[in-house]
Amino acid sequence: MKPLFDLAAALTHLRAADPKLARVIDRARPCDLAPHRQRSLFDVLLRAIVAQQLNGKAAAAILARVEALFPQSRPEPRALLALPDEPLRAAGLSANKLASLRDLAAKTVDGTVPTPAAARKLSDAELVAHLTAVRGIGPWTVHMLLMFDLGRPDVLPTGDFGVREGFRKLHRKRRQPTPAELERYAERWRPYRSVAAWYLWRVHEIELPR
Q1: 126 and 106 share a domain?
Q2: Mean pLDDT of successive 10-residue segments in the chain (210 residues)?
Q3: Would you call 18 a catalytic residue per the annotation?
Q4: 164 and 94 in one domain?
Q5: Does 112 lie in the same domain as 22?
Q6: Which of 47, 117, 140, 142 has the least CB density, counted as fewest CB within 10 Å?
Q7: Which residue is catalytic, options 18, 124, 154, 160?
C-alpha cells in the first residue's frame, strides 16, 4: 500500500529541519513506510500478544495453531471468548498470554478496541489510551500499530531501542537519549516523526560521514 501522507513533503521538511538526519536520508535506501493491508485492530493485537518474548519462528508456529482453532483460521473476539482454555493452552499459549487474549477479545466486544473505521476518527493519543487498556499491550506495541498498520505520519516510539540507538550513533553520543530528551529534540521533525524514526532505524545500515 502507498503511504497515507506525502512522503516527498516529509523528506523535504526533515532535510530542512535536521541537517544530521538529512545525511541519513541521503544515504539510506528509499523509505518504504506504508501501512500494511487493512487488518482489524483485534487481529493486529492478537498477533502482537502471541509473539511477545518469542522468536519469529516460534511465534509463527503458535499463531498458526491458534488460528487453526477457528473457522477459516480467522479468530474472532466472540468465538475466542467462547472457546475453552484447554485447546488454546495446547496451542502453546501461556497462562498470561491466554489471559491477555481473553481481555483483548472482551475489550473488542465492548468497543474499547475500536473498529478500523472508528480508529480513523481517533487521535494517536486517544488510540494509545484505548489500546493500552488491554492487558499485555504497552505503548511500544501501539506505536508500531499506528505506524505500520494505520500509517500515521507523526508517531515517535520513544521506547524503541533501535530508534534511540540510531539517534545515539547519529549524534555520536556515549549513551542513548532518554525518552524526554528524544521528545524534545524531535519537535523539529513534526509532523513527520514516523518518517524520522524510520530513518533512525536505518542508521546502522549506512556509513555516516565524519
Answers
A1: yes
A2: 84 97 95 82 96 92 96 94 97 97 98 93 96 97 94 96 97 96 98 97 87
A3: no
A4: no
A5: no
A6: 117
A7: 160
